[in-house]
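Q: What would this complex look like in 3D?
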Amino acid sequence: MAISLKVNGATRSVPAEPDTPLLYVLRNDLELNGAKFGCGMAQCGACTVLIDGKAVRSCVTDIGSLANAEITTLEGLGTIDRPHPLQRAFIEEQAAQCGYCINGMIMSAKALLDRIPKPTENDVRQALAANLCRCGTHNRIVRAVLRAANEMGRT
Ligand code: FES
Ligand code: FES
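A: Here is my prediction, written as structure tokens for the whole assembly.
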């Protein structure tokens, strides 16, 4: 069957069953590969997207529950030519080592900055605490989020 989803502002129809995880549809049907498969069990955060502005683990979110939802993926934040301040800050701080966790870090940080535009370092650490980074670049990631918050506060 076909299911309609609103992704990054566009309505997309996908040939999938309602219990298909959103992550599979994003990557396999819509060619949106920002979200990553890490654990598939809501444990690591690599697959995080925004659903109605909230950071959600797409590996355990069935598309059947998303009929009227606004889904935003990493690709919806910015482009290569016009990156979102968070994307720019992650590059400037060289926050990625392997990069596998970075989608989840940026999307969780986006949800945080929408909620708290001027977070403390502790706010950032708490917001990202459940996102795992096996490379251990946590300090650079935190610096990147604080840099983005600072830059966004100036515009
Ligand atoms: S892949 Fe979804 S939380 Fe790990
Ligand atoms: S940069 Fe490799 S898992 Fe975080």
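A: To summarize the key features: Residues 37-40, 42-47, 57, 59 surround FE2/S2 (inorganic) cluster (ligand 1) (CB under 6 Å). The mean pLDDT is 97.
Q: Very helpful, thank you.
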